[in-house]
Write a structure and sequence with these properties.
alpha+beta, Immunoglobulin-like, Rhopdopsin 7-helix transmembrane proteins, Heat Shock Protein 90, six-stranded antiparallel sheet, rod-shaped
Length: 651
């Protein structure tokens, strides 16, 4: 039993109370179906708001429902069928004239000027039946709502206000994409602008506004307009998605399949256009459009999800926009194929989804534009930095060229000065050699003369004189060898013949050869019983020790102490030579080992400045080193260090 209309009723959904009969032959009339009353079936749905929906079908469907009112309720009501894609809609009231209208018929056949189908109803206190006959080339859905006239006007006004807010937003987004394309010549903005334009036209046509406002006299075009515009929207959205996703790292097969969907949309669009002359293929084409839209939305959503998980810059808004669109398309596809019931949410799922999707796409473009601006700014900064670097390199090259010329000039001047200095040093060296050689020769000559006179007088001091002559001869031999070795050291033409030696034993063997150097000094030898061994070249290390002892005696006052000591440190064993002379300033420690280097305060003492340079070369050739510890007024301690074989073996 139908629920009666009351004075308080504003609207009443009849979807749960309708009965239907399928007419596959399209030949039944009202009398025929009234005679088949027992063949009507009751529409069943999951809830009372789900409209009768029969999917894509070539059949005509007859629907009937019962109306009655309470005595205090008004008699005048309105029946609204809010679905614009009913090709034929025949309305048979029980107490009035039949109305034959529909999207495929002239607008003048509609009793109420509305984007949907609205019929006046006179409802009595007794139950009366209303019959409807409907066909559609889209998914056949027949939502039924009975309205109080004032409530209908109010609801229609609010609904149209929300609809035009939606279309106004799409128009703004279309202008946004178009203006940015003109300014930037970026095809992504062009495809976005075209997408929002044809999407708006498709929704505009599907909601009945197109037939009402733009092409009122073209029912044939209205029949295919929604499918055509939505197919174009799918093409432009696919192009936009490929442009957005065509980045390094995107799997090629995904883009290939998306391109395949794009080509299939093109074929579908051609088939839709052909429906002007082919009157029976549109339902199949619409089914193909829904299936391809669902597949394309899945592919783009999957590709954007992969890019989102890789944290691709600028992808977050794009991903969520396509995720929402895919959800809306999925709901719409499931509705038209009868899996989901037809209600406000499922019938408007695409429009609701595109509301959020287009805004998110605009945000994605804005975010991408921001990233492009940052990239261009960084590129400009890199170009400026490169130019600045080139300028700096040019200036630096000029400066280096000038510096090279100046350095070369200084080198030439230094070379000239060095050559002059070398000449002076070799002259001094020759004078020093002559002086040093003259001294022992003079001693020998003097001792021979004294010895001759003593023999004439019968004085026998032969042993004493021979010892002095031997000492002078040894000194002369040492000086001659040092001279030769100095020359070899300078020209780096010496080789070592090393063998393991116990350093303390070796030092004891060298002492007799050092006595003539310490005639005027006290020699203090400190042997600590060390068993440390080292690889030693006897001759060259003896030359090192002789040089250090000679320097210690030469640069310290007569009568002072010269100390020889075997010393140790981790991994090394050494011999230190310590004197009690005037010492060496700390700022001269780094230069005393250079060739021809002498301190200003010792210029009056014979010497050239090659001895310590030779010492350092020989020690480096041994794999050791030389250290200096000295302060002015506290003498100097030179220590030669050799790698300890004993310590190495212990380690």
């Amino acid at each position: 039993m139908a629920k009666p209309l009351t004075a308080q009723t504003q609207q009443l959904d009849q979807s749960a109370k309708v009965e239907f009969l399928e007419d596959p032959s399209l030949t039944l009339n009202l009398q025929d179906v009234q005679a088949m009353s027992d063949r009507f079936q009751t529409w069943t749905s999951v809830d009372e708001t789900s409209a009768p929906s029969f999917g894509f079908t070539p059949s005509a469907y007859w629907l009937r429902f019962t109306l009655q009112r309470e005595p205090d309720a008004p008699a005048h009501w309105l029946l609204e069928i809010p679905y614009a894609k009913l090709d034929q809609l025949d309305f048979y009231p029980s107490n009035g004239q039949a109305v034959l209208t529909g999207a495929g018929r002239d607008l003048a056949t509609r009793p109420v000027f509305s984007r949907f189908f609205v019929f006046p109803l006179q409802v009595g206190e007794e139950p009366t039946q209303v019959y409807l006959r409907v066909t559609s080339r889209y998914a056949l859905t027949v939502p039924l709502t009975v309205w109080a006239p004032d409530a209908f006007k109010r609801d229609e006004l609010l609904t149209e206000l929300s609809q035009f807010m939606y279309f106004g937003g799409l128009a703004i987004l279309t202008l946004y994409g178009s203006i940015l394309f003109i300014a930037l010549r970026d095809s992504r903005f062009l495809f976005f602008g075209l997408y929002t334009l044809v999407l708006g036209l498709g929704i505009f046509a599907g909601n009945g506004f197109g037939r009402l406002v733009l092409w009122p006299s073209s029912p044939a075009f209205d029949d295919v307009s929604q499918s055509a515009f939505l197919c174009l929207a799918a093409i432009f959205s696919t192009k936009f998605a490929r442009k957005f996703l065509a980045v390094p790292g995107m799997t090629p097969w995904i883009l290939t399949f998306i391109r395949g969907c794009e080509w299939l949309f093109g074929i579908i669009f051609v088939l839709i256009v052909l429906q002007f002359v082919m009157q029976h293929g549109l339902p199949n084409v619409n089914q193909l459009l829904f299936i391809n839209s669902f597949v394309m939305a899945c592919l783009v959503s999957w590709a954007s999800l992969r890019a989102y998980r890789r944290q691709q810059p600028g992808i977050r808004f794009f991903f969520w926009s396509w995720a929402i669109l895919w959800f809306g398309v999925m709901i719409a596809a499931l509705r038209v194929f009868g899996v989901l019931p037809s209600n406000v949410l499922t019938m408007y799922s695409v429009q609701i989804a595109t509301t959020f999707e287009t805004v998110l796409l605009a945000m994605a473009l804005a975010d991408q534009l921001r990233l492009d601006v940052l990239a261009r700014r960084e590129a400009q900064q890199e170009v400026l930095a490169t130019k600045q670097q080139v300028l700096e390199m040019t200036l630096d090259s000029e400066a280096r060229l000038k510096q090279a010329v100046a350095n070369r000039t200084q080198e030439l001047e230094a070379s000239l000065a060095t050559e002059t200095l070398l000449r002076e040093q070799y002259v001094r060296f020759g004078a020093m050699v002559a002086h040093e050689f003259r001294t022992p020769l003079g001693i020998i000559q003097t001792q021979m003369s004294v010895m001759r006179k003593e023999l004439e007088r019968g004085i026998d001091q032969m042993a004493q004189r021979m010892q002095a002559i031997q000492s002078a001869t040894e000194r002369l031999s040492v000086m001659f060898n040092r001279w030769l070795d100095n020359s070899a050291m300078i020209n780096a033409s010496f080789t070592l013949s090393k063998k393991p030696q116990m350093l303390e034993t070796w030092l004891q063997a060298q002492l007799p050869q050092l006595r003539h150097l310490t005639v005027n000094h006290r020699l203090d030898v400190r042997l600590n019983g060390s068993k440390a061994n080292a690889m030693v070249d006897d001759d060259h290390l003896g030359l090192v020790l002789s040089n250090l002892m000679d320097n210690a005696c030469k640069y310290s006052p007569a009568g002072t102490r010269v100390t020889l000591e075997v010393v140790h440190k981790p991994g090394f064993v050494g011999i230190s030579v310590k004197d009690e002379g005037r010492g060496i300033p700390e700022d001269a420690h780094a230069t005393v080992f250079a060739e021809f280097s002498r301190l200003p305060l010792v210029e009056q003492i014979p010497g050239v400045g090659l001895g310590l340079a030779m010492v350092q070369r020989i020690m480096l050739a041994h794999g050791g080193h030389v250290t200096l510890d000295s302060k002015p007024g506290h003498g100097a301690t030179f220590c030669i260090w050799l790698q300890s074989l004993t310590v190495s073996g212990q380690e």
